[in-house]
Specification:
665 residues, alpha/beta, Rossmann fold, Arc Repressor Mutant, subunit A, 4 domains, seven-stranded parallel sheet, 30 helices, 19 strands, globular, binds adenosine-5'-triphosphate, binds magnesium ion
Length: 665
Amino acid sequence: MANLNPEQRAAVREVSTPLLVLAGAGSGKTRVITEKIAYLIGQCALPAKHILAVTFTNKAAREMRERVGKLLSDEVGRGLQVSTFHTLGMRMLRREAPGLGYKSNFSIFDAHDSLHLIDELLRKGAGAFTADALRNRISEWKNELVLPAQALQQADSEFDTAAALLYEQYQRHLKAYNALDFDDLILQPVLALQNDAQVREHWRNRVRHLLVDEYQDTNTAQYRLVQLLVGQTTPFTAVGDDDQSIYAWRGANPENLQRLQADFPRLQVIKLEQNYRSAGCILKCANHLIANNPHLFEKRLWSALGYGSPLKIIACRDGEHEAERVVSEILHHQFTHNSRHGDYAILYRGNHQSRPFEKVLREHSIAYHLSGGTSFFEYTEVKDLLAYLRLLVNEDDDRAFLRVVNTPRRELGAATLEKLGAYAAAHELSLLAACFESGLEAVLNRRATSRLREFAEWVVALADGARRGAAMPVIRQLIEDIDYADWLRDNAKEPAEAERRQRNVDDLLDWLERLAEPGDESRDLAAIVSRIALLDRLDRDDEGNAECVRLMTFHAAKGLEFPHAFMVGMEENLLPHRSSIEADDMSEERRLAYVGITRAQKSLTLTYASRRRRAGEWESCEPSRFLAELPQEDVEWERPGAVINPEKRKARAQAHLAQLKGLLS
Ligand code: ATP
Ligand code: MG
């Protein structure tokens, strides 16, 4: 508490009424949340287990737990819940699933799984619309708390009618698989709280103070979840910044900030105006840019840090040149400032933009850490093994069953599986349960039946083992039983591929081992499996360290800060994104640019290229309109072909030389 400003202190001490902290970037909102958790436990004697904090990503949750950990001893902090909305929903559902018609060992379908299911359903009654579009519509409804019947009733277009009919089927199939998709993890807890007074009472007893970070990015369903959890009596703290709302495309609703005031008449609002993160110049540019957006709330933001140096804008010939320039800037800057790789971040609009930077960083042997690229969890071998684990936990998970039943090959042909599927559907059984039916013998030959049965018995035996004891021995047994190493070897085009895959399997095992450590809350297989399902694309990998340059999207950078930041690809069609230009709506893209700028603490460099290759063809590019919206007296443009003064050139050459020497020594 010692170093907080008076407004922050007031926000921390306001523990009895609903509170909204509305403030710009870097003003210490997240800091208020961590300090307040410590205050609630330390000064107000509220047991940690009655405090629930919600953040936007698992990474943010982890960071907050660490920060709180520094303020409190382990002992008093025990039981504190810091999680994302989805993890919170998952935990609630472990208890409430039965009341909603699911079993508590439900599977969680990721985006691939749900798209696959929708594809399957469409195959039955082919229509004119794409699976992707239909899935998005269903997702929108779920985020708006619209159920299938209601969706059908409201549908006023052919597309909506088709989507609503599909929605109903989709839910029915999910239920048959005892599976929930990501949107259900919010929607279903809301339904449970809404429909059942006892459920409400249970959760309201558990949560005595609720804190929500990045509140501007909550959607309707999440807002409703908050509302139901706190009722009219539980105090809560929401912090947010309408200028940083960047998830409208996922249903986020910044008007939820206003709704709070209407729904909670006792709401206190505290504004924070001092930015502690960025040099004056960076902050001035950010404020100037965002002033071009219409505003719900008036906010001011100032910084007591020095003005710093003006923003640098570098024009580059093309994408490769851009990567080389940025890396050369980093090397030079590091040399002159004696800083570490970890002080630099390269930020961009889309994941595909990282490649040229990775290449050049590798060429210079600079360690880097990439967030949210092709994830470890998307490798075939990792998905295969995780599907096995899913099936062990939830025997109704037909999707997992189909993924693993022939991996490694068990000589079960498509015809056999189709007949099994038909039998299971006719008798309303899961695929695994159908394997045990004696009636199966009437539709399948003896060999096929006995192979299926053998597989099913093996699964059930392992599942029993997992339910009775520790998860790891069962997982190791499984991998041994299926001779997975041999399968990888036999199916690789070359030995190196088999080795790479085997390494992934080993990494997965190490990782599971760590998750299953005694003392960790999630030791049993069910908990491990659901935890993996909830790892977000944004935080599926670890953090990197102080010796790595960070590479990530603007979205992934939300809430973070870096001493020196580079915003690359500052061009029309990248930022602002092509689709927003087509839709003629700049405000969300501008907020994204604002989020980017406000990540920087000491220096910020923006780059754009004059041309880029798109699908093999060169395309010329225009600098982003947002560059023109910056206060021009606070930026320095470096044009293409600009003569760099000899002194600068010499310094740069020295930096490269030093780097080389470092590599050789
Ligand atoms: P964002 O909008 O980007 O999420 P935020 O409002 O959550 O930002 P924080 O991340 O909490 O801001 O704080 C920004 C930086 O300012 C952090 O490094 C934090 O430690 C520091 N800070 C916050 N409050 C103070 C304070 N009262 N005195 C000094 N430093 C502070
Ligand atoms: Mg924050």
